[in-house]
Amino acid sequence: MAERKASVERNTLETRIRVDVNLDGTGKSQFDTGVPFLDHMMDQIARHGLIDITVKADGDNEIDDHHTVEDIGITLGQAFSKALGDKKGITRYGHSYVPLDEALSRVVIDFSGRPGLEFNVDFTRAMIGHFDVDLFYEFFQGFVNHANVSLHVDNLRGRNAHHQIETVFKAFGRALRMALELDPRMAGQMPSTKGSL
Length: 197
Ligand SMILES: [Mn+2]
Hints:
Elements: E1 5-11, E2 15-22, E3 29-32, H1 36-49, E4 52-59, H2 66-84, E5 93-100, E6 103-110, E7 116-120, E8 127-128, E9 131-132, H3 135-147, E10 150-157, H4 161-180
Parallel strand pairs: 3-4, 7-10
Antiparallel strand pairs: 1-2, 2-4, 5-6, 6-10, 8-9
Helix pairs in contact: 1-4, 2-3
Bound molecules: manganese (II) ion.
């Protein structure tokens, strides 16, 4: 089995980003993005997905965090796609429900080869600390478009906005772990009747 690792560098006039992933990692992470709340959330992906993730970002945060957050989503999606290669033998679908106190979220993912995002999170606050919650949609849209996945994100309930989004990211990590797991019964076959994804 080839190592499922990738490094991607993406440089624009707005942001310079480097992402390293190891899909078969142990959940180690290292972030230097200038957006600490996003780092806290990506740490959940690494930890609960058992994916090693390093993100270095240098963006125009003096304007706001929009470009940096969206472009990290894009670059992370590109790294996942590159690390996965032809997707032979993967489970393909993954889902998870994660609670945190009063909050509960469900994330369902399909490494379908087609981008699609359904993001249903009715945040109880517009800001979490200095972080504008609208940017989470941009992060996931960037990821979805470049990892070529169908992703359904539903926050089912929650009063605390930090809990709402933390359950989303933990469930995202768990769903990724399930979908990316190599299924020994697939014996290296494509998990599609089309023969490609
Ligand atoms: Mn937290």
